[in-house]
Amino acid sequence: MSALQLIKEKAQKDGQKKNEETISSVAAEIKSKIQELKSKIEKERQTFVKALSKSSKECENCLKDEITKFQEVYEKFCKEKAAHLQALKDTISKFEEDKEMLFGRYEQLRKREKNLISEQEKFCADRISHLGESLKKKKQASHLKIEVLLYFTNTVMSELF
């Protein structure tokens, strides 16, 4: 081989070695950047997970508080509802009792009125009957007086003539 060719081969080997060193250097730089990016992404993910976890805990605590408040309000509502229903039942019961009492009084009043009307009818019938008898007696008395008068008149007239 000639010296020229040896130089050429050596230059090629040196060039190839430099290329390999450059490629190796760039590859190491790329690997380093990828590693940095991985670390940065992982750190951002952890920060996001922490924020999400914190938000989730806050939401869970708020929901627990609201559920507790709701249960208290619901229990209070149930108690008040029961009290109102009982008051309503008591009111209805009271008015039912009053209605029964008033109905009883009405029935007594009706009986009393019927008795009073019956007594009044009897009284009126008796009075009418007595009036009839009285009128009959007066008529008979009048009739008798007229007969007596006629008798006396006839007697006086016959004595006169």
From TrEMBL:
Highest taxon, organism lineage: Eukaryota
Biased composition annotated in UniProt, kind: Basic and acidic residues: 7-21
Disordered: annotated segments: 1-22
Coiled coil, from the record: 27-54
Record keywords: Coiled coil
The protein's name: RING family protein
Organism name: Hibiscus syriacus (Rose of Sharon)
